[in-house]
Specification:
Keywords: Hydrogen ion transport, Ion transport, Transport. This is V-type proton ATPase subunit H. InterPro entries: ARM-like, ARM-type_fold, ATPase_V1-cplx_hsu, ATPase_V1-cplx_hsu_C, ATPase_V1-cplx_hsu_C_sf. The chain has 476 residues and is mostly helical. Among the domains are: 94 residues, no CATH class; 115 residues, Serine Threonine Protein Phosphatase 5, Tetratricopeptide repeat, CATH 1.25.40.150. The chain contains 28 helices and no strands. Helix 17 runs antiparallel to helix 18, helix 24 packs antiparallel against helix 25 and helix 27 packs across helix 28. 42% of the residues are buried. About 4% of the residues have low confidence.
Length: 476
């Protein structure tokens, strides 16, 4: 899927192309060689057809110009102290490999094609410095070409990708939307092969976290201090994108995460556990302003749910995704890919809900990481029938998840703590002989701590839970 280059980058490149460079003076000063200058002049400011013909007749020479050879330095290594020349060559190099794919082929067959370029990625900590920005543009294009033309993972790419990802992530964290655009589109160009996606995921604290924060901002699930708020609390959110996130940036971020979900079987569970991706995407689907963003949201949800049904379908039901899909199906949607994913996801959820029990609903709510006062919590019959299963299912996964939920402070939604305390008390009441299991999970200690919480409801529910513990302790 091809995207137009970010306007910020195009403007910068055009500005640099228009600058006069004192080439002869650079030769006299020893910044570049006569051979460098001849090759540059033969392809600079000439018709595209002439440029293509010149390079094709001397692929080895232009490969050496950019990447160096056994007996000569590359033009960038020679001119490394001349900022004006370095900037100009970086723009020219990007133009050359775009115009002449054969040059890109020749470069990636060079023993060390990225060596002259990689140091310039780290040449400045200033996000607006043109040199690392232009370097990343060239390297992104060349590494992407290497990825799609190589039959197996290449060591050169494995070395370059983490460095590229690190630099591009600094752009995605920048407040300038133009720089964010460049960083996110760079990610998208690189995520074309499985091993590139695996490296991206390995470095997800740098690469993925800023993108998720952008989506949370767009979804309105962050407060004024930047903290995440309840994933399924959507009533107070106005329609449309929040936080000033532009449609183009949103689309590019959604595209990157969609590409990442080609490995959804490996990453889906972690995406949900660490980022509550189903809640986030369901909210974004409610707010999606265009069919093209809706298409990417549905495609990503389908990829994730299809590969992680047991984990993600219960969460999808809990956050009322089926009702939202029914609403979408009633709109006049024309994109065939969108409709295919919409129908596939709806069918998948319909099949799941037909076999769902009250226990499944409760388990889905707990696994979602966010609790609300749904019917099971205050239903004595539910606890009598299901308490033992809650403790035993999947080697005690649910009480462990309750402990995880209780470990957070929930400053923006204290009722979650109150509900979790209620559930712990219900488990102790029904199965007092299993108190040791709950204590090992850290639930007793945390519930006792919450007796001093500033929220009255949390204090009351924690006091009731501790009361159950003390009652059976004294009775025993």
């Amino acid at each position: 899927m091809s995207l137009d280059p970010p306007s910020y980058l195009g403007s910068l490149q055009n500005n640099i192309r228009a600058r006069p460079i004192p080439w002869e003076g650079a030769v006299r000063a020893g910044n570049i060689t006569d051979d460098h200058l001849k090759k540059i002049k033969a392809v600079d400011k000439v018709r595209k057809e002439q440029r293509i013909q010149t390079i094709k007749t001397d692929l080895a020479g232009y490969t050496t110009l950019l990447a160096g050879g056994s007996q000569s330095k590359s033009v960038l290594e020679s001119a490394s102290r001349r900022t004006d020349i370095v900037q100009y060559i970086l723009v020219l190099a990007s133009d050359l490999i775009q115009d002449v794919p054969e040059l890109a082929d020749s470069l990636v067959s060079h023993p060390e094609p990225y060596k002259p370029f990689l140091p310039f990625l780290h040449s400045s900590n200033n996000a607006e410095d043109p040199i690392p920005l232009l370097t990343s543009t060239f390297l992104t294009a060349l590494v992407s070409h290497s990825l799609v033309t190589s039959s197996k993972p290449a060591p050169r790419d494995a070395e370059a990708l983490p460095q590229l990802y690190t630099y591009l992530s600094t752009l995605t964290k920048n407040s300038d939307s133009g720089l964010q655009d460049i960083g996110v589109q760079g990610f998208s160009e690189l995520l074309r092969k499985k091993h590139a996606r695996e490296i991206f995921w390995k470095h997800r604290k740098e690469t993925l976290d800023p993108l998720i924060e952008t989506l949370r901002t767009a979804a309105g699930t962050k407060d004024s201090s930047g903290n995440s708020v309840a994933g399924n609390n959507t009533r107070s959110i106005e329609p449309g994108l929040a936080g000033g996130v532009g449609l183009q940036l949103l689309y590019r971020v959604l595209l990157v995460i969609w590409q990442l979900t080609f490995e959804s079987e490996l990453i889906g569970e972690d995406l949900q556990e660490n980022y509550e991706i189903i809640q986030l995407y369901t909210q974004l689907l409610r707010l999606s302003p265009k069919e093209k963003t809706t298409r990417l949201l549905l495609a990503t949800l389908f990829n994730l749910c299809d590969s992680n049904r047991s984990i993600l379908l219960p969460v999808a039901v809990f956050v009322r995704l089926p009702a939202l899909l029914t609403n979408l199906a009633g709109r006049h949607l024309v994109d065939p890919d969108l409709l295919e994913d919409l129908n596939g996801l709806s069918t998948m959820l319909d099949e799941y809900t037909k076999t769902q029990t009250t226990f499944d609903q409760y388990a889905a709510e707990v696994q979602s990481g966010h609790l609300r006062w749904s019917p099971p919590h205050k239903n004595p019959t539910f606890w009598k029938e299901n308490a033992r299963r809650i403790l035993d299912e999947s080697n005690g996964a649910l009480p462990k998840k309750l402990a995880e939920i209780l470990s957070k402070d929930w400053e923006n939604d204290k009722q979650v703590l109150a509900i979790a305390c209620n559930d712990v008390g219900q488990l102790v009441k029904e199965l007092p002989e299993r108190r040791a299991q709950l204590e090992r999970a850290g639930l007793k200690t945390r519930v006792m701590e919450l007796m001093a919480d500033k929220d009255e409801t949390v204090r009351w529910e924690s006091l009731r839970a501790v009361g159950e513990w003390l009652r059976y302790t004294f009775d025993g």
